Backbone:
């Protein structure tokens, strides 16, 4: 046996064993308990195009996230100036990047400017012209800060959507960022796509606002600090829905950011589901203060600008617990609890692409893909056996090793197999044989020069090495670019192609050569079947 052949045989055998072990969970999903505790349990997952499901592309309205940040700044400034007894006429967001403050006199303006400079150092302060001798200043968010806030909004939206889908119970979802402000969501095997879409796109901005008493929502102008929202009522018998307008203060006293938990519970008196919520320590303290100061007044619970209920505060509520009721079914109450637990989206999202793939189409794709692969492999095996004789059978054996190693590696990584991924595997069958064709032609050239089979084999592999390496490296770079900039099925193609290229280098340059070495060094071989 040639020097170094032993460890190469051991390495090839070890990879065969590992590949078979990693493929067991894919071939037999019902694993015994002892296997799950000791051996690998990752498997090759089927992509959306193979098992059906929903493919969504969401666009995050990042400008709304910036506006929301400025609204919080305006609210904070209003509270701060009130606490310091600094009189002002108006604090409001103007445009998409500024908060305007209008004051009655210059002395107050000077104090406000000093306070604002200390508190909001990252904002630019700009004097504004006001009528009637009033003084105005504006805080402008810097362009870099705006871009950072937009970027964080997309990242936060992605994590929020991921949390919602995890709680919804979708197995093996794909959730990834695409471009500047888009998110790709793939939900394989989902049975109720419309419910999932409603759950994903819900802004879930929960706010507690006081109802402004004594103001008619239909007669006359609504005060500047208030707005008209609608409370929905559903008749349990007829199912008819009516809307009651309510005037509420724009300022939210408590928001859903202070929640720690939300669970569906059943009202023992009316046997109706409601959502019980729990606040964190800050939320519990604020809820206690608000309810204590507003006994006898109506308190609106607002979700995404819709009033779910507006009960009268009967007494001070301590302990940090509250409930949201509103003619829920168990499913709608469960969905509301999910979005509240997962957190609110930092900005609204809109669906710009919605594609649903049926499970039957996925099965048909698998069948056609496997058929194409089987035909391709059969044709390649036949060609190599006829054209290169016994050497061609060695190349066919290397191709089988190639496929086995590739499937084992994909299973070990828990990779997702897509229809383009199957196409990549079929392509790699051709690449595997192509590498051997280059080697065999080099060996034939050496044999024509009169060299012995052993010398021709060594020279053939040596001369083909750089050519094979160059072609595989360039293909690997292409696959890396596809993976970096592609989405969905393109990434599946790139994953299969990248793994296959690296494995093919091993099998074509080492795997097949070991087989030749074993045969040629076994005896005094005078002629190669090539």
Residues:
């Amino acid at each position: 046996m040639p020097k170094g052949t032993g460890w190469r045989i051991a390495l090839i055998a070890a990879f065969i064993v590992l590949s078979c072990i990693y493929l067991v969970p894919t071939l037999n999903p019902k694993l015994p308990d002892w296997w799950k505790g000791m051996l690998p349990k990752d498997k090759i997952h089927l992509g959306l195009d193979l098992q059906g499901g929903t493919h969504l592309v969401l666009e995050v309205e990042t400008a709304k996230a910036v506006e929301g940040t400025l609204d919080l700044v305006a609210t904070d400034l209003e509270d701060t100036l009130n606490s310091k007894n600094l009189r002002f006429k108006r604090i409001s967001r103007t445009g998409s990047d500024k908060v305007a403050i209008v004051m009655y006199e210059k002395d107050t303006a000077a104090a406000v400017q000093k306070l604002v400079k200390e508190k909001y150092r990252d904002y630019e302060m700009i004097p504004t012209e006001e009528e009637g001798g009033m003084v105005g200043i504006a805080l402008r968010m810097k362009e870099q800060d705006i871009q950072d806030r937009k970027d964080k909004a997309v990242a936060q939206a992605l994590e929020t959507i991921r949390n919602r889908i995890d709680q919804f119970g979708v197995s093996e979802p794909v959730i990834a960022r695409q471009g500047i402000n888009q998110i790709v969501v793939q939900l394989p095997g989902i049975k109720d796509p419309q419910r999932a879409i409603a759950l994903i796109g819900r802004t879930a901005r929960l706010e507690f606002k006081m109802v402004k008493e004594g103001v008619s929502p239909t007669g006359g102008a609504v005060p500047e600090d208030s707005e008209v929202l609608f409370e929905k009522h559903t008749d349990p018998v007829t199912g008819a829905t009516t809307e009651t307008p309510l005037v509420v203060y724009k300022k939210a006293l408590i928001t859903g950011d202070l929640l720690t938990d939300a669970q569906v519970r059943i009202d023992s008196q009316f046997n109706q589901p409601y959502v019980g919520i729990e606040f964190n320590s800050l939320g519990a303290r604020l809820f206690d203060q608000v309810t204590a100061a507003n006994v006898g007044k109506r308190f609106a619970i607002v979700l995404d600008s819709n009033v779910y209920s507006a009960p009268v505060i009967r007494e001070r509520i301590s302990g940090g617990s509250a409930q949201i009721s509103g003619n829920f079914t168990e499913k709608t109450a469960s969905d509301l609890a999910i979005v509240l637990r997962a957190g609110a989206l930092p900005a609204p999202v809109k669906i710009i692409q919605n594609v649903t793939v049926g499970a039957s189409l996925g099965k048909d794709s698998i069948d056609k893909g496997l058929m194409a692969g089987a035909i391709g492999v059969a044709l390649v095996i036949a060609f190599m056996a006829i054209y290169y004789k016994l050497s061609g059978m060695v190349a066919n054996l290397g191709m089988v090793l190639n496929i086995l190693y590739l499937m084992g590696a994909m299973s070990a990584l828990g990779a997702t197999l897509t229809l383009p991924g199957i196409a990549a595997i079929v392509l790699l069958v051709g690449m595997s044989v192509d590498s051997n064709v280059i080697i065999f032609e080099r060996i034939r050239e050496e044999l024509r020069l009169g060299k012995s089979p052993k010398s021709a084999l060594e020279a053939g592999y040596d001369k083909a090495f750089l050519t094979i390496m160059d072609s595989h490296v360039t293909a690997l770079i292409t696959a890396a670019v596809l993976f970096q900039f592609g989405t969905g099925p393109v990434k599946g193609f790139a994953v299969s192609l990248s793994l296959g290229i690296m494995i093919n280098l091993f099998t074509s340059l080492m795997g097949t050569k070991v087989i030749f070495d074993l045969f040629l060094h076994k005896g005094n071989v005078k002629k190669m079947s090539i």
The mean pLDDT is 82. The two ends are 22 Å apart (CA to CA). Residues 359-413 form the longest helix (55 residues). The chain is about 55% helix and 20% strand.
